[in-house]
């Protein structure tokens, strides 16, 4: 009986920790450990023109998420103006947000439009999104405020 009570208590603590953690990061696409956009450097999309995996040596905390960078220079650029470099819709799939969902992303499925980084679930979804980028952005811009914290 004691073991089952301890196990039940531990399960409750673990569930609370996981749920609490997920709620804290819902507005930013993070891994289980709170790393934004799969650990990729959001600045590199703009400066290097490609997705580059960031390093735990160069991290910055913003919007309850840990953002990783390939260099101190990229980290400092982001820290000076996070809104300029952070992906739209918290780094969730731009097409998915336009449909009222918050799917994850594949870091290689991306595009910068008017200086804003947009990520997509995968290359197939990105191809669908690219059929009407302005229309999907307009839809996502309207929907995002209603789902960003869900």
Main features:
150 residues, alpha+beta, 2 domains, two-stranded antiparallel sheet, 14% strand
Please, could you describe this protein's structure?
The chain has helices spanning 2-24, 42-47, 72-80, 82-85, 94-98, 123-129, 133-147, and strands spanning 55-62, 65-69, 110-113, 116-119. The relative contact order is 0.13. It is built from 7 helices and 4 strands, in the order ααββαααββαα. The chain is globular, with a radius of gyration of 17 Å. It has 2 domains: 1-86, no CATH class; 87-150, no CATH class. Strand 3 and strand 4 (116-119) form a beta hairpin. It is of the alpha+beta class and 150 residues long. A two-stranded antiparallel sheet has the order 1-2.
Lay out the secondary structure.
Layout lengths: L1 H23 L17 H6 L7 E8 L2 E5 L2 H9 L1 H4 L8 H5 L11 E4 L2 E4 L3 H7 L3 H15 L3
Number of domains: 2
**Beta fraction:** 5-15%
**Alpha-carbon distance between the two ends:** 38 Å
Order of helices and strands: HHEEHHHEEHH
Helical amount: 40-55%
The 3D shape can be described as globular
Report the C-alpha radius of gyration, rounded. Answer: 17 Å
Query: How many beta-strand runs?
Result: 4
Largest sheet: 2 strands, antiparallel
Average predicted confidence as pLDDT: 87
Count of DSSP H/I helices: 7
Give the neighbour order of strands across the main sheet.
Answer: 1-2
The helix/strand class is: alpha+beta
User: Which regions have little confidence, pLDDT < 50, spanning 5+ residues?
Assistant: 2-25
């Amino acid at each position: 009986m004691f073991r089952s009570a301890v196990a039940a208590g531990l399960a409750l603590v673990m569930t609370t920790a996981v749920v609490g953690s997920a709620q804290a990061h819902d507005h930013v696409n993070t891994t289980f450990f709170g790393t934004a956009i799969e650990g990729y450097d959001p600045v590199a999309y703009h400066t290097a023109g490609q997705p580059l995996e960031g390093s735990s040596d160069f991290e910055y905390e913003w919007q309850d998420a840990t953002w990783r960078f390939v260099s101190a220079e990229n980290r400092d650029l982001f820290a000076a103006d996070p809104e300029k470099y952070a992906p739209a819709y918290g780094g969730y799939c731009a097409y998915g947000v336009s449909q009222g969902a918050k799917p994850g992303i594949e870091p290689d499925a991306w595009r910068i439009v008017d200086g804003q980084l947009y990520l997509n679930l995968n290359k197939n979804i990105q191809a669908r999104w690219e059929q009407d980028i302005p229309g999907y952005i307009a839809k996502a811009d309207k929907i995002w405020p209603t789902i960003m914290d869900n």
